[in-house]
Design goal:
The complex is a heterodimer of chains A (about 260) and B (about 400).
Chain A: H1 3-6, E1 13-19, H2 25-37, E2 42-46, H3 57-68, H4 73-83, E3 91-94, H5 97-103, H6 105-114, E4 119-121, H7 134-139, E5 143-144, E6 147-148, H8 156-161, E7 167-170, H9 186-194, E8 201-204, H10 210-219, E9 222-225, H11 227-236, H12 241-255
Helix pairs in contact in A: 2-4, 2-12, 3-11, 5-6, 10-12, 11-12
Chain B: E1 5-6, E2 9-13, H1 16-32, H2 36-50, E3 56-58, H3 60-66, E4 70-75, H4 85-98, E5 103-108, H5 112-124, E6 127-133, H6 134-139, H7 141-149, E7 153-157, H8 164-177, E8 182-184, H9 195-203, H10 205-218, E9 224-229, H11 233-239, E10 249-257, H12 268-271, E11 273-277, E12 279-284, H13 309-317, E13 320-326, H14 327-341, H15 347-359, E14 368-373, H16 381-387
Parallel strand pairs in B: 4-14, 5-6, 5-8, 6-7, 9-10, 9-14, 10-13
Antiparallel strand pairs in B: 1-2, 2-12, 3-4, 11-12
Helix pairs in contact in B: 2-4, 4-5, 4-9, 5-7, 9-11, 10-11, 14-15
Classes of the chains: A alpha/beta (about 260), B alpha/beta (about 400).
């Protein structure tokens, strides 16, 4: 079983997203280690892209900061190679199609596999185009993680049937970012996924508070938080490790049913 | 291979949130594009509102001055709103109405597509939001005013390089935010399927007319058709009905900016490589890690790091040729056409005029060249004056 799927066993999974190289790769390493100690179950590592069309202002700004600092795909691979043996948490890469395609899909996934990456998420690749990436992921034992959106309706079964790792349930219309309320019927989305697969489900987009996390975890097997963490990194820069670790601990505690 | 492919290019690389929206659009387009009622309505709009067919004008003075090939200008600049953009916009707006949409959104670079979209929205009673790079709102302030005058809301985009590329990204983001009542009127032959096909079909009226007009005037087909290429909508429109005629050279003129050997260029086919961005596989200006390059051209309408997938394919097969034209050459052509023919072209179209000025003397006097004059240049006068060191207060 892929380590991503295992992360959901016997518990509600807390999945954290950060952008690699925001504000620098040393901070990224420190954040990965601190979040691992704080109990995070999966970390999504964003490889920054110049034009992240699925992101709201907070993660756009993180992409900008990271690229301005001179981070590249190769430098990120080197960073993961260093940090991977020192943490237990599974790592998934999140980036845009062109970053993988331009590197050479085969070469990208071979390297990712060698350095211990467990999953890949590409928000600008829908089911119809996944043949460019999913077969190479399978070849190198990396889970190609698919997204289901509030507009997916009759597409849910088709997507979920071929999903790997976990099914990423997009909670709301629009781009990534903190939302005060999540109004879509995610419960219905998860039910339709569970009709065709026993893969775990995780809800992302818009979740920031422990209350929201608990509420979403009642409907699914895990929650994904990006913008709320990236916002802390934007505020604290290289001093973000302690506040991010505290945040992750609080979210994980809430998901365990603690106060 | 998946849908909407031109060779290896094209496809539908968009977030899952938008997939049902493009599928719905594809279904509606498949239904309406052969529907006699729809085509009658669109035909009447093109005739009675746009002023089609646009003229095919024999530029006798330019021909005599340049020597060589006989030059014709396809006068898309004479269309209502001053450019070819209106052809596509009316088609898509009519389609949006048929689909029950009440709101349209659009990106714009130079502002021509935004003005056309705002015009169609006003005409058809649709709510309209336009996304325009903050940099471009400064370069094209008059068009911003026009869009507002027409009832649209103009949103300056400050992300990235604050130009056309970022306007497209922001319009895509807005579409994922509000889909049910909203149609994205994409302005060029780019983006995810079915946009490159829809926009091409609505712009193909240009080459359909050129063909008929040329046969009527000369009794034969032209030897070359030239058009500027940013995303490539006026070029594909001018090429389409000649694709099967191998005797007709099809020449797309990209914006080289300050030169294809500099970083300040927007010549995608000349300097880019294959990538995946803005919904499509095609050629893009990008760095070795696939980061999209901050392109540059004096022309806000050609200042885009990608090119439509059908052009990418026509380049791969060699059916069309793509050349690069610098800012300086385009500005010279802008001034040349004004002086020589009394026609002020859009700075975008001036890129095609510039290459025609080089090409004509190399051709024989019995050969014929058509230059697609995709838009008029009123909007560019202040910027060109500035380029020449003169400040104009409008």
């Amino acid at each position: 079983m892929n380590s991503i799927r295992k992360a959901f066993q016997g518990q509600k999974a807390f999945i954290a997203f950060i952008t690699c190289g925001d504000p620098d790769l040393d901070t990224t390493v420190a954040l990965i280690r601190a979040m691992d100690e704080a109990g995070v179950d999966i970390i999504e590592l964003g490889i920054p892209f110049s034009d992240p069309t699925a992101e709201g202002p907070v993660i756009q700004a993180a992409n900008r900061r990271a690229l301005a600092g001179g981070v590249t795909t190769d430098k990120i691979f080197d960073m993961i190679r260093r940090v991977r043996p020192t943490v237990r948490v599974p790592l998934a890469l999140m980036t845009y199609a062109n970053v993988v395609f331009s590197y050479g899909t085969e070469q990208f996934l071979q390297t990712a596999s060698e350095i211990g990456v467990s999953g890949l998420i590409l928000p600008d690749v829908p089911f119809e185009e996944k043949a460019d990436f999913a077969p190479a992921c399978r070849k190198y034992g990396i889970a190609y993680i698919s997204l289901v959106a509030p507009t997916s309706h009759d597409r849910i079964a088709m997507i979920a049937r071929e999903a790997e790792g976990f099914v990423y349930c997009v909670s709301s219309l629009g781009v990534t970012g903190v939302r005060s309320q999540i109004t879509s019927d995610v419960g219905d989305m998860v039910r339709r996924i569970r009709e065709v697969t026993d893969l775990p489900t995780a809800i992302g987009f818009g979740i920031s508070t422990p209350d929201q996390a608990v509420c979403m975890a009642e409907k699914a097997d895990g929650v994904i938080v990006g913008s709320a963490i990236v916002k802390l990194i934007g505020e604290y820069g290289s001093e973000a490790v302690a506040p991010v670790a505290a945040y992750v601990r609080a979210m994980k505690t809430a998901l365990r049913g603690g106060a | 291979m998946t849908k909407g492919r031109f060779g290896i290019h094209g496809g539908q690389y968009i977030p899952e949130t938008l997939m049902n929206a493009v599928l719905e659009l594809e279904e509606a387009y498949d239904h309406y594009h052969n529907d006699p009622q729809f085509n009658a309505e669109l035909g009447e709009l093109l005739r009675g509102y746009v002023g089609r067919p646009s003229l095919l004008y024999h530029a006798a003075k330019m021909t005599a001055d340049l020597g060589g090939a006989k030059s014709y200008l396809k006068r898309e600049d004479l269309n209502h709103t001053g450019a070819h953009k209106i052809n596509n916009v009316l088609g898509q707006a009519l389609l949006a109405v048929k689909m029950g949409k009440t709101r349209v959104i659009a990106e714009t670079g130079a502002g021509q597509h935004g003005v056309a979209a705002a015009t169609a929205a006003a005409l058809m009673g649709l709510s309209c939001d336009i996304y325009m790079g903050a940099e471009d709102t400064k370069r094209q302030a008059l068009n911003v005013y026009k869009m507002r005058l027409l009832g649209a809301r103009v949103h300056p985009v400050t992300s990235g390089t604050a130009t056309l590329k970022d306007a497209v990204s922001e319009t895509m983001r807005e579409w994922t935010n509000r889909i049910a009542d909203t149609h994205y009127v994409l302005g060029s032959v780019m983006g995810p399927h079915p946009f490159p096909t829809i926009v091409r079909d609505f712009q193909a009226v240009i080459s359909k007319e050129i063909r008929e007009q040329m046969l009527a005037a000369e009794g034969r087909l032209p030897d070359a058709v030239l058009a500027c290429v940013g995303g490539g909508s006026n070029a594909i429109g001018a090429f389409y009905h000649f694709l099967g005629d191998s005797s007709v050279r099809l020449i797309g003129c990209e914006a080289a900016g300050r030169g294809t050997d500099t970083f300040e260029t927007a010549a995608t086919i000349t300097t880019g490589r294959v990538g995946i961005f803005h919904g499509m596989k095609s050629y893009f200006c990008q760095d070795e890690y696939g980061q999209i390059a901050p392109v540059y051209s004096i022309s806000a309408g050609l200042d885009y790091p990608g090119v439509g997938p059908e052009h990418a394919c026509l380049h791969d097969t060699g059916r069309a040729e793509y050349v690069a034209v610098t800012d300086n050459e385009a500005v010279n052509a802008f001034e040349y056409l004004a002086r020589t023919e009394g026609i002020i072209p859009a700075i975008e179209s001036a890129h095609a005029v510039a290459y025609a000025m080089k090409l004509a003397p190399t051709m024989n006097r019995d050969q014929i060249m058509v230059i697609n004059l995709s838009g008029r240049g009123d909007k560019d006068c202040a910027a060109i004056a500035r380029y020449r060191g003169e400040e104009i207060v409008e």
